[in-house]
Amino acid sequence: MAIWIGIPVILSGMLSLLANTGGDAPTALLLLVDQDNTLVSRLLPAAARQGNSPIEIEPVTLDEGRRRIGAGDATALLVIPAGFQNAVVGSGSAQLQLVTNPAQRVLPALVQQMLDVLVEAAFYGQRLFGEPLRRVAGPTGTGPPSDANVAAIAVAVNQEIAKLQGVLLPPIISLSVKSEASRAAPLNFGQVFLPGMLFMSFLFIAQGMSGDVWEEKTESTLRRLMTTPQSAARLLLGKLLAAVALTTVVALTGLLTAVAWFDLSWSRIPGALVWCAFVTGALIALLTLLQLFAGTQRGSDLLSSIIVFPLMMLGGSFFPFEQMPAWMAAAGRWTPNGLGVAKLKDLLYGDVSAGALAVAAIGIGVPAALAFLGSCRRLRGFANA
User: Fold this and answer.
1) At 80, which CATH number?
2) Under DSSP, is residue 171 helix (H, G, I), strand (E, B) or coil?
3) Is the peptide bond before 170 cis (omega within 30 degrees of 0)?
4) Residue that finishes a domain, picked among 99, 122, 138
5) Measured CA distances, 144 to 47, 92, 141, 147 (Å)
6) Do 106 and 193 have their domain in common?
7) Are 213 and 292 in contact (CB under 8 A)?
8) pLDDT tens per residue across span 268-323
């Protein structure tokens, strides 16, 4: 019992540590030496800052940059050489120099990947629009381009864009924007894993409590109980209610830790507690029937383990549904514990309709009720075997 109660507490504590040790995301400091000082070279740091880029760019001189990267005060040093703009939009060549900090592992790779993307973008821009770009970057000192040159450049660009019809236009990737009402606050690491961890504990409880019939049989108490006026249904119902009471204590312990560590609202506890007790009772009823058809106690332990551990794998206990392949998550949500995990997550963090919860309860409860009736019919023959 101590292990069963301790499982959600220990796992929730571990998840809380994992969820809270991250803090602010680390930022890569990139020292930039711009020796070209042109429009294109000034656009390079602006492109690197697009989106939520974790890269902070600081302009420095070459001597200062070498000194600071040598002292390990930055993630990387990037030197943009003279002639960079002519290499991008003209016919020249230039080599970017990147010096990374060997004392850091992840952030330098991030900077290098960002730079690789920009170089690739420049390469494909040259392949697609090289000829118009060379006209734009034509000989300097000749004054502004004539109207004829401007028109010719525009026509050339338009012709290249027309060739991309069916490849990039319309774009392959589409963007779907949700309304503000449908957006929910993202769950942290611990909140995502908590429902599955709780149901891992419930499955262990169901496996242990369903095996109680073998303990009764081994001690010969089950045969004596079958000689009393009490029915098999009443005996199994008593065991089931005792297991549900224990599950309620374990679930309450896990939910209270979630209130303390994961900012779970107190109003979510009653519904989640009832749901956890109901689903665990159904799991116990299903596993009890399985135990009654095993030939030996050792065989029953092996058989229940063969069933329980795949259920944990598919049902979102080892990995949350969000991290699983789509086909595996779809199959896992149809398992009894997977359906329980999915609805528990809705009860804890989202909105669940009474109709959807009733359908899930019927889907779990009807097979469990049939298993309970089957166990009642099987119990007397099991005791006398």
Assistant:
1) 3.40.1710.10
2) coil
3) yes
4) 138
5) 27, 21, 9, 9
6) no
7) yes
8) 888 888 998 899 889 999 988 888 888 788 888 888 888 888 888 888 877 788 77
What distance in Å separates the CA atoms of residue 48 and residue 63, rounded to the nearest whole number? 23
Q: Concatenate the DSSP letters of all residues of 180-206 into one string.
A: GGG--PPP-HHHHHHHHHHHHHHHHHH
* Tokens 């930055």 belong to residue: 74
Flag whether pLDDT at 140 surpasses 60.
no
Structure tokens at 373: 């009736």
318: closest CA among 141, 192, 149?
Answer: 192
Report residue 166 as tokens.
Answer: 């069916």
Domain membership flag for residue 124: yes
Domain that holds residue 132: 26-138
How many Cβ atoms from other residues are within 10 Å of residue 243's Cβ? 23
Helix spans in 137-268 (H): 147-163, 189-210, 212-218, 221-226, 232-261
Q: Which residues of 261-295 are buried (b: 16+ CB within 10 A; e: fewer)?
A: bbebeeebbebbbebbbbbbbbbbbbbbbbbbebe
- Degrees to nearest 5, angle at CA 14 with 10 and 20: 140
Q: Which residue has the tokens 């019927």?
A: 362
Q: Beta strand pairing status for 97-100 and 55-59? A: unpaired
Number of domains in the chain: 2
Question: Does residue 235 share a domain with residue 330?
Answer: yes
Q: Any bridge partners for residue 59, and if so which?
A: 32
Say if residue 206 is in the same domain as residue 121: no
One-character DSSP codes across 334-345? TSHHHHHHHHHH
- Region 234-238 average pLDDT: 87
Together in a domain, 127 and 191: no
pTM score above 0.70: no
Amino acid at 108: P
Task: Give me the residues paired with residue 31 across strands.
Answer: 58, 77
30-46 residues labelled b (16+ CB within 10 A) or e (exposed): bbbbbebebebbeebbe
Q: Are residues 213 and 334 in the same domain?
A: yes
